[in-house]
């Protein structure tokens, strides 16, 4: 009987995939092309700067900090342009900057030109990412987690393919790796200019359930309780992302320098991450179906799995240990990450969905900004890698607390809106 129930849930998930709107499929393919190219760059930033450019861990972390700050600003700018003008305009600007940035990076990646080009790519990445996630809500507003999960899976197809291809090219020098990133930026740009113009950016054929601005819609303001609820959601995301990013930054240095894992083996960990996320959907669909209306439960499960990943990594002294840690990390993000933009979409007032998705993407970027630098400071000044793991577990505990508070405020805000609606109905 249990097998039959699970099979039914899996078939329901499969049918949902078939029923995804055409416009959402365009966004999905765009995300695959985009993130495959970007995955030639981000996994190797710390290793490249500390290894080939000869920078210290702290200096390299400062570069990534500024890069992420630039991404935060561009995410918010992109979200505002999305809401006030058009999602196509926002993505058009980001796409053009991305092509220019990756071309320049492929040609000039010595010191200090690598740094300027990395920041230019970071600016483009912030605009395009916030635009694509906002487009997921625009093209499938009634889908709940489904649209955001589809974009998340598409992103991780890129994570599976990009680092693997980059690892193959790294044997010929990092110049070839950055050339690969530029070529995929071209593939994405061509796809964007051909197909993205066909998307219904003005929401003319989308029902009233959309939170995106459309003709005749009056923008609504957030309630004070709803605003604090959103702030706590962003705090939860930050407290989860700060530990997660350590796998890309300080843990990567620890693995390659102290444990003796090669750069190619480290890149394969992220290929494993992306492959598990894509293939794991067959298992995840029936599980998530049981928690479809319990988004906060998905976040709690994700936090628990994150903790397990760092417990394993803390005791690992061989490559196999880090593989197991990456598996737990991947399972954690499969539960937690798509739930966050879904809750943000629920909290967004009408006409502000693009801004709220920009804030979510900006918070992930803030983690990428702060995590390498803070982690390096802890490692170099407060007791090495052990102190880093202690700080990670403290952050995950704070994530649990902020999630509890956020959920209670969201319930309260929903109740207040329902009471206000009843009062208006009585007055009429």
UniProtKB/TrEMBL annotation:
Asked if the record carries the keyword Transmembrane helix, the reply is yes
Q: Which residue ranges traverse the bilayer?
A: 24-42, 62-82, 89-108, 114-138, 150-171, 177-196, 223-247, 267-287, 299-316, 322-347, 359-379, 385-405
Keywords of the record, alphabetical order, are:
Cell membrane, Membrane, Transmembrane, Transmembrane helix, Transport
Q: How would you describe this protein's topology in the membrane?
A: Multi-pass membrane protein
- The residue ranges of the Major facilitator superfamily (MFS) profile domain are 23-409
Q: Which GO terms describe its cellular component?
A: plasma membrane
Q: Which PROSITE patterns does the record associate with it?
A: MFS
- Protein name as annotated: Transporter
Where does this protein come from, organism-wise? Listeria kieliensis
């Amino acid at each position: 009987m249990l097998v039959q129930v699970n099979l039914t849930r899996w078939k329901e998930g499969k049918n949902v995939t078939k029923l995804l709107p055409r416009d959402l499929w365009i966004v999905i393919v765009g995300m695959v092309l985009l993130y495959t190219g970007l995955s030639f760059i981000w996994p190797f930033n710390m290793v490249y700067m500390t290894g080939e450019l000869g920078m210290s861990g702290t200096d390299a972390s400062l570069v990534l900090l500024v890069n992420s700050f630039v991404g935060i600003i561009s995410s918010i700018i992109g979200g505002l342009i999305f809401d006030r003008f058009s999602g196509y305009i926002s993505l058009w600007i980001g796409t053009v900057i991305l092509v220019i940035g990756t071309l320049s990076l492929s040609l000039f990646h010595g010191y200090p030109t690598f740094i300027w080009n990395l920041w230019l790519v970071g600016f483009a990445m912030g605009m395009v990412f916030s635009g694509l996630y906002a487009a997921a809500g625009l093209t499938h507003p009634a889908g709940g987690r489904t649209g955001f999960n589809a974009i998340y899976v598409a992103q991780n197809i890129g994570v599976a393919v990009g680092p693997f291809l980059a690892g193959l090219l790294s044997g010929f020098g990092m110049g070839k790796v950055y050339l690969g990133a530029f070529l995929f930026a071209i593939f994405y740009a061509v796809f964007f200019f051909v197909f993205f113009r066909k998307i219904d950016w003005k929401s003319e054929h989308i029902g009233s359930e959309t939170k995106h601005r459309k003709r005749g819609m009056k923008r609504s303001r957030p309630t004070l309780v709803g605003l604090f609820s959103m702030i706590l959601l962003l705090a939860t995301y930050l407290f989860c992302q700060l530990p997660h990013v350590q796998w890309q930054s300080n843990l990567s240095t620890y693995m390659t320098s102290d444990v003796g894992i090669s750069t190619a083996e480290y890149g394969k960990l992220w290929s494993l991450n992306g492959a598990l996320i894509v293939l794991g959907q067959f298992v995840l669909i029936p599980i998530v179906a049981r928690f479809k209306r319990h988004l906060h439960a998905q976040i709690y499960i994700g936090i628990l799995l994150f903790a397990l990943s760092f417990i394993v990594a803390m005791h690992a002294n061989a490559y196999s240990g880090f593989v197991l840690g990456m598996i737990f990390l991947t399972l954690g993000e499969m539960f937690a990450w798509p739930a966050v933009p879904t809750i943000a979409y629920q909290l967004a007032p009408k006409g502000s969905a693009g801004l709220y998705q920009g804030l979510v993407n900006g918070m992930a970027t803030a983690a990428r900004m702060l995590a390498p630098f803070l982690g390096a400071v802890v490692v170099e000044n407060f007791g090495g890698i052990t102190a880093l793991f202690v700080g990670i577990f403290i952050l995950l505990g704070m994530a649990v607390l902020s999630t509890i508070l956020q959920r209670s405020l969201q319930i309260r805000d929903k109740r207040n809106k329902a009471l206000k609606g009843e009062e208006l109905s009585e007055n009429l």
